[in-house]
Amino acid sequence: MTDLPAAVLEPEIAPRSTAEERWRALRTVSRGDLIFRVVLTVLACLLPLLLLLIAVELVSEAMPAARRFGLSFLTTSVWDPVRGQFGALPLIFGTLYSSVVALAIAVPLALGCAIFLTEFAPRWLRYPVATLIELLAAVPSVIYGLWGIFVLIPLLRDHLWPVVRPVLGHVPIFSGVFYGPSVLAAGVILSVMILPYIAAVSREVLLAVPADQREAGLALGATRWETVWHVVLPYGRAGIMGAVILGLGRALGETMAVTMVIGNRHEVSASLLQPGYTIAAAIANEFSEAVSDMHLSSLFLVGAVLFLITIIVNALARVLVWRVARGSAVGSTAI
Amino acid sequence: MRGRLARRLIGSTMTGATYGAAALAILPLAAIFAMLLVKGAGSIDLNFFIRSAVPVGEPGGGFAHAIVGTLIIVGMACVIGVPIGVATGIFLAEFGGGRFGFGVRFVADVLNGVPSIVIGIFAWTWLVKPMGHFSALAGGFALGIILVPIVARTTEEMVRLVPNSLREAALALGYQRWRATLQVVVRSAAAGIVTGCLVAVARVAGETAPLLFTALGNQFFSTRLQGPMAALPLQIYVYASGPYDEWHRQAWAGALVLIVLVLALSLIARAVVRAKRQHA
Amino acid sequence: MTKALAYFLAAAAATTFLASGAAAQETVRLTGAGATFPYPIYSKWMSEYHNLHPNVEINYQSIGSGGGIRQFTDHTVDFGATDGPMTDSAVAAVQGNVYHIPTVLGADVPTYNIPGVTAKLRFTPEVLAGIFLGQITKWNDSRITAINPGVDLPDQDIVVAHRSDGSGTTYIWTDYLSKVSPEWAQRVGKATSVNWPVGLGGKGNEGVANIVKQTPGALGYVELIYAVQNSINYGLVQNKSGNYVNASLETATLAATGAVAALDRNTDFRISITNPDGAQAYPIASFTWLLIPKQMTDATKARTLLEFVWWATHQGQQYNEALAYARLPARVVQLEEERLKSITVNGTAVLPRNYHGQ
After folding, report:
1. pLDDT in tens, C198-229
2. Is B8 in the same domain as B89?
3. A252 contacts in B (CB within 8 Å)?
4. Which end of chain B has less Cβ packing within 10 Å, N or C?
5. Whether A132 and B26 lie within 8 Å, measured CB to CB
6. Which domains does chain A have, with CATH numbers?
């Protein structure tokens, strides 16, 4: 910015002669910018401040439980409010498991939608379909939960599973009796909930890929699909990564819908068909009713664990984006 | 090297797959909407919009208190969250290359992952407990906190997508940096920023957990910011968790109204942005 | 356009502030929070009371019994409500400045969904404990068929449904199981939230009801009103006298009467009425309480609250039956009157000595 010659910064018709005056003019020009930058920086500081305050509150309330249980909090499965014994392994496992399932379903679908909307959809269809997909974000999680109970679970348990069982029943992740409320149901609901975020942002990213990139691909003889797969998508890699992280964030912290369909059982099981539990669901279920101090403190501790998981996941994703986006142009300065 | 036929086949299949993906994505929405219409449309009448809650067994009750409450609380959340979020987004896009920018971006992503109930508890500790009572203000604050990181990240992505040539052209024309950013770059990213804000507002409008400990809910009609206030998602949740069929029907109706409300907001905002584009 | 919008928002905010300030003069507003079980009857009472006294707005929200206790302890509400009484340590946390005032009676029922079975099943305490301990796993287990002759029970897994959120309903259920099953008392115990040996967790009474409705072979416990309103079958439970009793308003009141007859005059009402004496008493019933400070600070609010509670425990009881809540026994109401009259603000009693309602 300051490399540009003064003549560009302040185009004048009658050139000023003294250096003093030109220096003064330069400073005047930069004051507005200075205020602009200061204001933005101050406002941007609010986010880290907020995070700090939340972290401080979580950690200070969690200390009693941390001191009492230590690392066994992360490795044991017993959650007994009566005896004051708390182990969060099923919660951590369930949170990660359901989020992975959600991403596995949502990312391909969302990308497919984004590609559809930017490349293949007929012009008249684009706006309505995009709006409809974004509308998925507007459905309150309680309604997703109710839909899950009354429509999705019976569908999965009574119609889909009997058909699929002969083929998949032997696979460990599909073992056990399927009662309905399960990690699978939660994963599916979550995928529906995070799809609009990933799709909306991916779509904007793909829209921003310059037309000449596409044209270059086509000019070289690629089919439309090959252009998308080999040219457009790689160009927007980093932005799409950002979209996926946004979706993952939502999946990790979703409360209401998950607690209504996951079965709320403090148990670790490899099978998708078994009930499970997530940290956010446990906090939502038990926070307002937790009467003993150790129970409350344990809930704060498990909340702090979720915090930590979110930080680790985001750090990993950042590293991934940095590695992957070194070649791409769109959003590459996002690192 | 694949033969021409194979490539075209793959191309057609994948094209069809994207059609399928879009259809599959819309399917749950259609299913939910259909369920809401079937279960809830019958309960929507004039009373639903102008009358507040009545006791069980009495006819003519409505969600007026919840609808107005949501508008007020979400309005407050926008007033708090949108300016800070957009400002942070612009900061990240324009000055966010260094370590501080990296940190803020990281923080925003982490905050996006914090469960909304934790935000509600946070707002309770900082606003409800010291004040000694529940309030719509605390509710708006909690929702605003949820808004900021979403709006910040989407704004950043949208501003970043504006080609550098536009920035350089503005600067070449003699604009100061701040004017170039605000009047040229942000304006051309406006549509995308609005999309991001809308997605965030849509999410926040349907949040129940953070309001449980802040706005609490109110069976009476209230516009007092310093007291408890009803909100659509809260009321839906309470009625859906109750035992009475008539409450369930009203809950479905409430959900229908909520979605339609958000859709209306979305369409209006898009239309406004489109109109502005045509003027500019 | 954005300028116009900004002006509009500012104007709207200003008007709201002004309007709210102006209206606040005459209305007395009280806020309470707590148990979900009595929410329907409380909201009915508060509406009716508002009709009788238009300047009184009492807002009650159901955030759970523990939530009610916590908000009461933190002084963010004017009164609390709970299905499970405060423990001694919780009472100590408020320096004893709390009265438990019973308002209505409720009953937990065992609801079930067995394909092909429409009859009302019978349950003994041993069977219920066995099922919830995970020891009885099939509906055609001999222990169940023995007490239900004539019912064709299928070879189906029992899917237990319990509460995932802490609640007074759970407290009542586990309190009962602890009394009738030493193994339960030792392994699990009684609380608003316990470590369930088996089962799926549902959020809220409605969550459990939904699991039962949607899962063939399910058995769960819910408050009576939820079973009735959801039209799910619920069973008879054998009481202390050996009779199989159907949960109803009468049998719930009978459960209270027995326990209440032995009440000490200075009782703090934190009594359990599960597994009581009484030939037709339903064994899994309980009071639900309002939490009111013994010493309050705001005279107007105190007067309004106490007048309301008086009305609720007297005239308000007429609304109970329609919503499937049982009435308070007369002796309980009598003792409550004394408690309410003893509540003070700055040392002076709020209600006059000869107060007898409106």
Report:
1. 999 888 888 888 889 888 999 999 988 888 88
2. no
3. 113, 115
4. N
5. yes
6. 89-293+306-333 (1.10.3720.10)
